[in-house]
Amino acid sequence: MAANRSATADRRARIEEMRRAEQARERRNRLITIGVSSVVVLGLVGFGTFVLMKKSDEQDRKDAAAKAPIAAEKAWDAKKLGRNHVETAVKYDMKPPVGGDHNPVWMNCDGVVYDKKIADVNAVHSLEHGAVWVTYNKKASQADVKKLADKVGKTKYSLMSPVDDQTGAIMLSAWGKQVTVDGADDPRVDAFFTKYVQGPQTPEPGAACTGGIGADGQGGTGMGQ
Predict the structure, then answer these.
(1) 61: pLDDT confidence band, cut at 50, 70 and 90?
(2) Nearest CA to 213 among 223, 199, 200, 203?
(3) Best CA proximity match to 100, nearest among 114, 83, 116
(4) pTM of the predicted structure, to 2 decimals
(5) Where is this region: Disordered (predicted)?
(6) Whether the Cβ atoms of residue 159 and residue 152 lie closer than 8 Å to each other
(7) Are strands 74-75 and 170-174 parallel, antiparallel or unpaired?
(8) Which of 52, 98, 159, 167 lies at a CB distance of 3.0 to 4.6 Å from 109, suitable for a disulfide?
C-alpha cells in the first residue's frame, strides 16, 4: 500500500511539474506574441508617421513655391482682362495672350502638345480654365522643345504650341501671368507650373480641359461657363 501511495504521489508530482512547464511555455509564447505585435505596430505607426511627415513636407514645399515670386514674371490685372465669349477675332495687347475676350470653345489642354499654330481665342479660354500654355518659336532648341513637350504631356491642365512671332524663344502663360525662360531646364519652368496649373489666378477652377477643340479643329461643343 505504501508503495502504491508513493507511486501515486510521484505521478501527481510529475503531472504538476508538466502542468507548470506548460503554463510557463504559454506565458513565454504570449510574451513573445505581444512583443512581436508591439514591434509591428510601432513599425507601422513609425512608417505612417514618416509618410505623413513626408507628405506634409512636400505640401509645405509646394505651398512655399506657390507663394514665391517668379523672377522677371509679367502680370496683368485680372479684373481688367475681358472674359466675354465672342465668335469674332480678338486683338490682344500681348503675345501670346494671357487673357481677354475669347471663343466659347477652349483648346483641349489635358496635357496636349500641338505641333502647329493654334488659335489664340481658343487657347485663352483654356487659360481661363486654369491651364498653363507653353509656347516657343524657331529660336528654341529642339532639345528644349522635346523636354517641354514631355513635361506638358505628363501634366493635366497644360498645353503647348508654336508661336512664331512671340518675342522670347520659350514663354509660359497663365491667366494674367507670363514669363520668358532661358530653356527647358530653367527652374522657373517648374515654378510656373507649380504656381499656376489650376492656381489661384484661375477664373474658372475645375472647369474642363477636355471636350473642347483639338488640333484638327474638331471637338466637342465645349461651351464654357
Answers:
(1) low
(2) 223
(3) 83
(4) 0.72
(5) 203-225
(6) yes
(7) unpaired
(8) 159
Q: What is the pLDDT of residues 183-194, one digit of tens each?
A: 999 999 999 999
Q: At 28, is the secondary structure helix, strand, or coil?
A: helix
CATH 3.40.30 fits 74-196, yes or no: yes
Predicted confidence (pLDDT) at residue 221 exceeds the cutoff of 50: no
Among 214, 160, 157, smallest CA distance to 184 is for 160
Residue 142 C-alpha cell reads as: 529642339
Q: CA 189 to CA 194: how far, in whole Å?
A: 9
Instruction: Give the start-end residues of each E strand in 57-212.
Output: 74-75, 110-113, 132-136, 158-162, 170-174, 177-181
Residue 138: strand, helix, or coil: coil
Residues 5-21 pLDDT 10s:
666 666 776 777 777 77
**Range with lowest mean pLDDT among 60-64, 114-118, 153-157, 198-202:** 60-64
**Cα–Cα distance between 99 and 164 in angstroms, integer?**
19
* Mean pLDDT, residues 32-51: 69
Instruction: Quote the CA–CA distance of 213 and 190 in Å, as a whole number.
Output: 27
The answer to whether 110 touches 198, Cβ cutoff 8 Å, is no
Q: What is the DSSP string of 53-81?
A: HHHHHHHHHHHHHHHS--TT-EE--GGGS
CB 187 within 8 A of CB 68: no
